[in-house]
Amino acid sequence: MNASPKAPVPPRQRSRTIARVAAVQALYQCEQNETGAEVVLKEFAAFRKVSSKAEFEEGDIPGADLRLLEKLVRTVMANREAIDQAIEVLLPPSWPLTRLDPVLRALLRAAIAELQEGTPKEIIINEYLDVAHGFFSGDEPKMVNGILDSYVPVLQGNN
Question: CB-based contacts of 141: which residues, under 8 Å, 6+ apart?
Fold first, then answer.
């Protein structure tokens, strides 16, 4: 009796990672369109599929943890000035925040917001390195790692 081959098991959905990717996209959209969190979140809900059958290539966010997505976007937008100041302290004086790629700015804002809220640093650094690798193929992930790693002692008051 021939056993039919099993269908490949799809990789476990990483709903929180996907939410972080979507949050970076939403924060980028907030900055580019000069709109607030609620406007962008409504657009995401109206135009992007969240189901497990959704495809990133079509602009959808398959299996995202929507609560985390909404919390990140709202938190960053409500505290953007303080978050930006926290990032600027870690950048060289010759490299102002505005010089960073806007996607990189959005990514760092989301990561710093999560660190400020107490999410363990190991999780945040790992997660946002994964997110950075999804958006960038150059040295940006190394920069993300360096900035987030440098921020942790500042956050803990050990600077």
Answer: 129, 132, 133
